[in-house]
């Protein structure tokens, strides 16, 4: 994974999971139209929507399972939502920043950015 971006099976960093559990029947009917918001230190940095995903959830699972066994509980990421990436708006997180990722019908994931280990 040279760039760290794009469809890949090897990204094992910069991923986070919250405590909320949403079942398939609760989210699938809405997965193509969920409002999203990124809030840093109480200020909205980005808003977006899951509409127009480059790959459907079925395609994500198909790709991830190509040539390997997926087991219950494995985490599959769907990528960044357009309008919700600091790279797009030229803003960067710093140690001590509090970031909230809000997705309609899913919940809010809140973390504080720590200092890098030297």
Provide structural commentary.
The chain is α+β, with helices and mostly antiparallel strands. It has a domain of 61 residues. 14% of the residues lie in helices and 21% in strands. The chain has 3 helices and 4 strands; from the N terminus they run αββααββ. The protein has a 4-stranded antiparallel beta sheet, with no helix packed on it. The longest helix is centred in the middle third of the chain and has 9 residues. 3% of the residues are buried. The mean pLDDT is 85.
CA radius of gyration: 15 Å
Contiguous runs where pLDDT drops below 50 for at least 5 residues: none
Please list the strands of the largest sheet in the order they lie side by side. Answer: 2-1-3-4
Q: What is the 3D shape?
A: globular
Helicity range of the residues? 10-25%
**What is the tally of beta strands?**
4
**Major sheet: size, sense and barrel closure?**
4 strands, antiparallel
Strand content: 15-25%
User: Helix/strand-derived class?
Assistant: alpha+beta
